[in-house]
Amino acid sequence: MEGATTCVLAAGKKGADRSKFDGSAEWEKQDDGSYLAAKGLPVKVTFPADPDGISRICVVEATLPSQNQQKQMRTAFEALLKKKPIEQKDSLVWMFGGGSNARGLQFFTDKMSDQPKIRLIGAAF
Questions:
Q1: CB neighbours of residue 88 within 10 Å
Q2: What pTM, to 2 d.p., does this model score?
Q3: What pLDDT, on the 0 to 100 scale, is given for residue 95?
Q4: Is 9 helix (H, G, I), strand (E, B) or coil?
Q5: Burial class, 50, CB count within 10 angstroms (exposed 0-12 / middle 13-18 / buried 19+)
Q6: Torsion of CA 21, 27, 33, 34, to 10 degrees
């Protein structure tokens, strides 16, 4: 969850701000430019490039121990973000701010696996 909320803040229309991960003892930078959770958790953060070569979004991928943990994560996000998400076919979306400061967090859930592989995307609009 920490990675996802940091991703929302790192995302930028002109390019993502990787310094939010570079300066943290919680994240270990990898040779490919991604970050792994320093505590050995199965969490990876990446900054995929758009077709123009600029990385604007931030993506967190993780494997959770159970479907119950995934449900708990949704509940925790709702409490932390103080709002219900917009429910889509395969994801949940929380929107923040407005106008030039609009941001979003998209949570792609995995309803099939015993150990769900989830993905969260932080974006600025």
A1: 11
A2: 0.92
A3: 95
A4: helix
A5: exposed
A6: -110
